[in-house]
Amino acid sequence: MMNIYNHILQAKNDGNKLLAVLIDPDKFQLKNALQFIDKVNNSVITHIFIGGSEVGQNVTQALVEVIKMLTDLPIVLFPGDVTQISKDADAILFLSLLSGRNPDYLIDKQVQAVPLLEKTKLEVISTGYILIESGKTTAVQRVTNTLPLNRTDVDAITNTAKAGELLGKKLIYLEAGSGATYEVPAEVIESVKNKIDIPLIVGGGIRTKKQIENAFIAGADMVVIGTAFEEDQQFFEQLKH
Ligand SMILES: CC(C)=CCC/C(C)=C/CC/C(C)=C/CC/C(C)=C/COP(=O)(O)OP(=O)(O)O
Ligand SMILES: O=P(O)(O)OC[C@@H](O)CO
Ligand SMILES: [Mg+2]
């Protein structure tokens, strides 16, 4: 099987858009796994992301083990902390929070992660993570004690993304934050897309098919959705037509 990053790169080059469901171990009930993952398997979803800002110890490992039994889709860790590293996932977004100025989330968590990653075969995907102001204080902002970038400051966001690419990041992730009031603006996505060559992921506050399409049209290669699937499983149906 092609590795996960190369598959994302190929999809980007072929113009095949990708859609990830974000499962937050903090909220997901294991007893619902069979029914939920069955819906995921029968949808247009291409990736399963697992992560959260505030997740208890060992919860992620148990969740990954169960989900892995239920799907052939790639399982990608999207961790808020080193405690969310599970050897049974396929890959990990190795995030550095480029929008903030908190050294813990720029480099320290990553250093702490190294001995844990060395015990796994996880594919490590270096990702520049950029939090964008979205109408309310999000969990990422609270946990990291950083400020998001102003959603109207397109230049600052674009330059941050470009700096990430120049630093060698393999992906850029524009994040409005889970449950965001406003998703990442299309003009921000467009501007970043025009400046970088690496794949672009966009997430936070996307709740309709139209918003997904708008993000793709603006230039997102992958969209990530958590809340809309959590709160309304009819959303799987809406995506079919
Ligand atoms: C390097 C390793 C292994 C860990 C640190 C990784 C870094 C720098 C993370 C950045 C900051 C962070 C807290 C990211 C979390 C991203 C995430 C999974 C968000 C998902 O949503 P939640 O923030 O949990 O939303 P809810 O409020 O809906 O629960
Ligand atoms: O829960 P939602 O608002 O879909 O956001 C998920 C987001 O954190 C992924 O980037
Ligand atoms: Mg959470």
From TrEMBL:
EC category: transferase
Co-factor requirement: Mg(2+)
Keyword terms of this UniProt record: Lipid biosynthesis, Lipid metabolism, Magnesium, Metal-binding, Phospholipid biosynthesis, Phospholipid metabolism, Transferase
GO molecular function, one term: heptaprenylglyceryl phosphate synthase activity
Catalytic activity: sn-glycerol 1-phosphate + (2E,6E,10E)-geranylgeranyl diphosphate = sn-3-O-(geranylgeranyl)glycerol 1-phosphate + diphosphate
Superkingdom classification of source: Bacteria
UniProt cross-references to SUPFAM superfamilies, sorted A to Z: FMN-linked oxidoreductases (SSF51395)
Keyword Coiled coil: no
EC assignment: 2.5.1.41
Gene Ontology, cellular component aspect: cytoplasm
Residues annotated as binding Mg(2+): D24, S53
UniProt record, GO biological process: glycerophospholipid biosynthetic process
Positions with a binding annotation for sn-glycerol 1-phosphate: Y173, L174, E175, A176, G177, S178, G179, G204, G205, G226, T227
Role played: Prenyltransferase that catalyzes the transfer of the geranylgeranyl moiety of geranylgeranyl diphosphate (GGPP) to the C3 hydroxyl of sn-glycerol-1-phosphate (G1P).
Family: Belongs to the GGGP/HepGP synthase family. Group II subfamily.
Protein's recorded name: Geranylgeranylglyceryl phosphate synthase
UniProt organism field: Mesoflavibacter zeaxanthinifaciens subsp. sabulilitoris
